[in-house]
Design brief:
2 domains; 16 strands; Rossmann fold; about 400 residues; 14 helices; disordered N terminus; alpha/beta; nine-stranded mixed beta sheet; elongated; Ribosomal Protein L9, domain 1; three-stranded antiparallel beta sheet; about 20% strand
């Protein structure tokens, strides 16, 4: 995966991040992230101790639905998790993931308080690295209590245990999550781990699932000298993705409909002429699968003359474009719903009888292909001509 970083930061960066966030679990660090406002009603159940040490740069709660299973990456003191608990409701579930023991202790301590205030318990906080959502660090720590690593053989045994835990007891299972959110955390991950990080988000999402990621981005590449500054890195500055490459990282991982959901107009900080600002990105999983011909078409409504999707399909304004069944169903869901008219065939082609469809060319669909070559029906004028079902 391409990213905004030249080279790699020093080995002290991860330690600096961990130490700074441990301090931030005890007292407020005003410089960690840019100020963000959240819905007041969602804050009412959050304990004051957590509100006092809040860090973030966006509000992903707007992209979560009732009843969903949501993972909050870098959950910290638990504020976002407790807010999301109210959005997903009693039937939903929220899983916070963090690796800082002080932050985890704080969020876990308040779970019962929030559950009592809500009247239900649907939040838990797990110990793990967000770039390795298979490895349960609590399970690993339990093993190390009785099996300390003291030799090369012990280290090899530990690696085998890690692989077994990832395989048999993953922290977050494959295809198990409706939405992954994060609030100003991805920029703290080392550049060499970022391809794996985005791939992990894709892995845990269900088909049709989505991410809503708020993070700090830069308008230019961040020079190595700034990357090697642990204070700037732990402060969500020098680890920032370059803005355009941040979106491309999700595209490269297989996500579709990648879009900027919110962008801070004025920079949060400017360092050596480089602007750093908050950006919220949404993206979806679900464009994989076979292409089958069921005689469907879509008509792009405008306003642009033409648009191209993440699979290279081109849609010309006002024209019937031939699409496979997978793409037809995809374009009827968010965030595409409302951009197209959807043309079903006069005679349905059963899925079991659908032949392979070549999606590569931008092919028009003649009306006779959907109506049928032998279609000869003649009707009287309809009494209703309103597009909303109303009558003239």
């Amino acid at each position: 995966m391409s990213n905004a970083i030249e080279g790699s930061p020093t080995a002290g960066v991860e330690s600096a991040v961990n130490e700074r966030y441990s301090r931030a679990s005890r007292e407020c660090e005003q410089a960690l992230c840019c100020p963000t406002s959240y819905p007041a009603n969602l804050l009412e159940v959050v304990p004051a101790e957590i509100l006092d040490i809040d860090y973030g740069c966006g509000d992903p709660t707007a992209y979560v639905r009732p009843g969903e299973t949501v993972v909050d990456l870098g959950s910290g003191a638990g504020k976002m998790g407790f807010m999301l608990a109210q959005v997903v409701g009693r039937e939903g579930r929220v899983i916070g993931v963090d690796c800082n023991p002080d932050m985890l202790a704080l969020s876990r301590r308040h779970c019962s308080t929030v559950a009592r205030r809500l009247g239900f318990a649907n939040v838990e906080f797990r110990c793990g690295m967000i770039q390795d959502l298979r490895l349960d660090l609590d399970a690993l720590a339990d093993h190390l209590q009785s099996h300390p690593t003291q030799s090369a053989r012990d280290w090899l045994d530990l690696r085998r245990l890690e692989d077994r835990l990832r395989r048999e007891r993953p922290l977050i299972a494959d295809d198990s999550v409706d939405c992954v959110v994060s609030n100003c955390v991805l920029n703290l991950v080392r550049p060499e781990d970022r391809t794996r990080l985005i791939a992990e988000l894709y892995r845990v999402l269900k088909l049709g699932g989505r991410v809503a990621i708020s993070d700090i981005v830069a308008d230019e590449d961040v020079p190595l000298a700034l990357q090697n500054n642990p204070e700037l890195w732990s402060g969500c500055v020098s680890g920032a993705f370059r803005e355009d490459l941040f979106l491309k990282a999700f595209e490269d991982a297989g996500f579709y409909a990648v879009q900027i959901a919110a962008r801070q107009t004025e920079p949060w900080r400017t360092v050596e002429g480089i602007e750093f600002r908050s950006l919220t990105v949404t993206a979806y999983k679900g464009k994989q699968g076979p292409c089958r011909e069921r005689k469907q078409a879509v008509i792009y409504r405008g306003p642009f003359k033409k648009v191209e999707d993440d699979d290279g399909h081109v849609y010309y304004r006002g024209e019937r474009m031939a699409v496979c069944d997978k793409t037809f169903q995809l374009l009827r869901r968010e965030p595409y719903a409302g951009l197209f008219e959807y043309v079903e065939p006069q005679t349905e082609v059963p899925p079991a009888e659908a032949l392979p469809f070549d999606c590569r060319p931008a092919a028009r669909r003649p009306p006779r292909e959907t109506k049928g070559l032998d279609y000869r029906e003649t009707t009287d004028a309809s009494q209703c001509c309103g597009t909303d079902g109303g009558c003239c």
